[in-house]
């Protein structure tokens, strides 16, 4: 029964109206708690299937609530056009895939993550008064602290050392690649939260978690993770015009790199500075780039495993492999148009966040939008060396991106309303 119909009933129906409204508020509150729960679960890949089933239930519930309340299902964001074009082009490329069944299954996973984004935007918009954002940020803090403590404990228990990366810290039920990517996503959010939290204990707890995350990133010994973190700090310095920070960090990075090289000459961190994995990646990228030229429009099939299905393995080692690069994977899998739409999506998200953040940098929301823009930059760099835009990592990325872009949409809506003349 739609609320518009209920509102026009006589006084005898007031109890029914109030009952419907109370039920609606309660169910929206449950949806908000569900968003917080799924944010926390995103830190644990083993729970991904359970999280998917929960999400489907929450999505259906939100749809029913929207229908009952007579509201619009349409939620506008700055990335609608490129994101939907990206998903549409990937679907269009499926019939041309090496394995259409596999590529279609990967496309369905992509659509599921896009739905997570729009569901999160809807909840942030609908529940502004109860503001589930605080719960989402708390889930990021708790989730990061949990995986960081696990990674450090497992690293020490496995005989990890500062001398080399023969043992590397990893996330629960995953590995060092997942850990480094989780931390690339979480560190900018933790830094912002540590600066803007209202209570001192919250700032201290978040700062402590940030310290754990930085140590965890270090002992993951994942050079792509280190580079992603470096890009995040440089991006922050550039956006906030902290030239001294940028200069000092670049100088420190050069010194640290030279120190690693010097240490390798006397027997330390030889595996860390080894160029072997870089050479293996370059061989893959050259092969992938050549095949993109051969199949520029629709590619050979979306999905990280398509490379092995099409070409049989690594061009040097012959092992089953993906392209170790999200952008090349998309271009080879679904064509250059898909890559353009993906870059457009990430660029539109980042520029929208930065534009609004600069208008209110002194406010907590402005700082959060800036932190999410920095996270997008670091996440993109991390994916230059592996395909990590999948599974629970993608879910966490889209929830946090929704948190920032919903605020952009809300502020732009207010601005439009202020410009609209009064009737």
How would you explain this protein's 3D organization?
With 423 residues, the protein is mainly α. It has one domain (3-419). It has 17 helices and no strands. The chain has helices at 3-7, 14-41, 48-69, 80-93, 100-126, 133-157, 176-196, 200-219, 223-239, 243-265, 270-273, 276-294, 306-311, 326-334, 336-359, 364-382, 391-419. The longest helix is centred in the C-terminal third of the chain and has 29 residues, at 391-419. The radius of gyration is 23 Å and the shape is globular. The two termini are 32 Å apart. The model is unreliable at 1-7 and 413-423 (pLDDT under 50).
Helix content: over 70%
What's the gyration radius in Å? Answer: 23 Å
Shape: globular
Q: What is the first-to-last residue Cα distance?
A: 32 Å
Structural domains: how many: 1
Please report which band the strand proportion falls in: under 5%, 5-15%, 15-25%, 25-35%, 35-45% or over 45%.
under 5%
Instruction: Classify the secondary structure makeup into a structural class.
Output: mainly alpha
Order of helices and strands: HHHHHHHHHHHHHHHHH
Largest sheet: none
Low-confidence stretches: 1-7, 413-423
Total of DSSP H or I helical runs spanning 4+ residues:
17
Average of the residue pLDDT scores? 87
Strand segment count? 0
């Amino acid at each position: 029964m739609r609320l518009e119909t209920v509102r026009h009933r006589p006084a005898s129906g007031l109890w029914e109206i109030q009952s419907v409204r109370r039920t609606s508020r309660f169910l929206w509150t449950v949806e908000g708690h569900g968003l917080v729960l799924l944010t926390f679960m995103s830190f644990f890949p083993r729970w991904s299937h359970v999280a998917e089933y929960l999400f489907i239930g929450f999505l259906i519930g939100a749809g029913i609530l929207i229908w009952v309340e007579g509201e619009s299902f349409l939620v506008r964001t700055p990335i609608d056009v490129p994101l939907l074009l990206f998903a549409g082009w990937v679907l269009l490329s499926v019939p041309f895939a090496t394995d259409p069944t596999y590529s279609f299954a990967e496309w369905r996973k992509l659509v599921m993550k896009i739905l997570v984004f729009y569901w999160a935007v809807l909840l942030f918009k609908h529940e502004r008064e109860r503001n589930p954002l605080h719960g989402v940020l708390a889930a990021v803090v708790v989730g990061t602290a949990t995986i960081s403590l696990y990674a450090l404990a497992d690293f020490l228990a496995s005989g990890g050392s500062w001398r080399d990366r023969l043992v590397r810290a990893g996330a629960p039920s995953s590995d060092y690649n997942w850990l480094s990517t989780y931390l690339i996503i979480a560190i900018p959010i933790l830094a912002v939260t540590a600066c803007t939290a209202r209570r001192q204990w919250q700032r201290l707890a978040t700062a402590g978690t940030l310290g754990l995350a930085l140590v965890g990133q270090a002992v993951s010994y994942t050079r792509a993770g280190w580079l992603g973190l470096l890009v995040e700090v440089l991006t922050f310095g550039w956006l906030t015009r902290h030239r001294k920070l940028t200069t000092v960090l670049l100088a420190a990075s050069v010194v640290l790199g030279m120190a690693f090289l010097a240490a390798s000459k006397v027997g330390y961190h030889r595996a860390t500075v080894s160029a072997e994995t870089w050479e293996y990646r370059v061989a893959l990228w050259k092969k992938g780039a050549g095949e993109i030229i051969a199949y520029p429009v629709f590619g050979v099939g979306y999905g990280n495993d398509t490379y092995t299905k099409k070409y049989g393995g690594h061009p040097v080692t012959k092992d089953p492999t993906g392209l170790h690069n999200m952008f090349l994977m998309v271009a080879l899998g679904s064509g250059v148009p898909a890559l353009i739409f993906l870059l457009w999506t990430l660029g539109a998200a980042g520029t929208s966040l930065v534009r609004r953040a600069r208008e209110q940098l002194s406010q907590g929301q402005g700082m959060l939008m800036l932190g999410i823009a920095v996270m997008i930059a670091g996440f993109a760099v991390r994916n230059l060396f592996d395909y990590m835009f999948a599974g629970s990592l993608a879910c966490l990325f889209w929830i946090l991106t929704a948190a920032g872009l919903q605020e952009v949409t809300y502020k732009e809506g207010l601005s439009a309303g202020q410009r609209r003349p009064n009737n």
